[in-house]
Structure formats: C-alpha cells, structure tokens
C-alpha cells in the first residue's frame, strides 16, 4: 500500500499523534504550541490536511475532535526508507553505507554498535 506524501511539518504533527493517539485537537495544539512557534490555527490547518490526505481519521466526541492515525509510524518509516534508498542509491543499502562511511565521521562506538546490530540480525553471516 502506497502511503500519501506528507510534509516535514505534517510529520511533526504525526509524531505527536502516533505517540498519544487517540488525541484531541486541543491536546495536539497544546503540545505543538509548546515545542514550536506555530499558532493554534496552523496546527488545526495541518490536522485538516492530514485528514484530507487520508493519513488521519477522527471522531467527534461531544464538541471535540479526536484523531487517530490511519497507518503506523513503522509503516511510514519503512516506505520512506525504501523511497530514500531507491531515489539516492538505486535501492542498494551497501551503496548508502559506503557513502556515509566516506563522508561522515563514524566513532568506534558507532562502528561497534553497527557490528553488533548486524551480528544480532544475521548470526550466520546473512544466510
């Protein structure tokens, strides 16, 4: 299933909803107004956009709208990861790792963490 594209700002809204769902408009607004310089109107506009895109569902409880995600954060990240690899590295994870290792400083601790991750996932060498 191809998930709709969402902007960086919409993703910030979604992170709150994934963490706290079901969550009311007022709760989303309170959280985002404390952590961003957005106005309540901006938050409400983004919630409406996300509903229109089919990313959020809502129900009306008395005079409040309560939002829930239509898909999980894991599903969204899986699609974004795949899209990123396809777009920039022809779908090849090894090309991405090679590029990062060539251009980004990697600490010994990070290298050990990567080795451990690979060993945990592929104890027989990837077979």
UniProtKB/TrEMBL annotation:
Keywords: DNA-binding, Transcription, Transcription regulation
SUPFAM superfamilies for this protein: Winged helix' DNA-binding domain
Family: Belongs to the BlaI transcriptional regulatory family.
Record lineage: Bacteria, Bacillati, Bacillota, Clostridia, Lachnospirales
InterPro entries per UniProt: BlaI_family (IPR005650), WH-like_DNA-bd_sf (IPR036388), WH_DNA-bd_sf (IPR036390)
Protein name: BlaI family penicillinase repressor
Pfam families registered for this protein in UniProt: Penicillinase_R
């Amino acid at each position: 299933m191809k998930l709709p594209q969402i902007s960086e700002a919409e993703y910030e809204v979604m992170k709150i909803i994934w963490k706290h769902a079901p969550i009311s408009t007022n709760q989303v607004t309170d959280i985002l107004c404390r952590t961003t310089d957005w106005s309540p109107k901006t938050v409400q506009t983004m919630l409406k956009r996300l509903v229109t895109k089919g990313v959020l569902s809502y129900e009306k409880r008395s005079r409040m709208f309560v939002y829930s995600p239509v898909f999980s954060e894991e599903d969204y990240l899986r699609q974004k990861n795949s899209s990123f690899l396809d777009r920039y590295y022809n779908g090849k994870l090894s090309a991405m790792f090679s590029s990062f290792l060539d251009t980004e400083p990697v600490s010994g601790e990070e290298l050990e963490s990567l080795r451990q991750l690979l060993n945990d996932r592929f104890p027989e060498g990837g077979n």
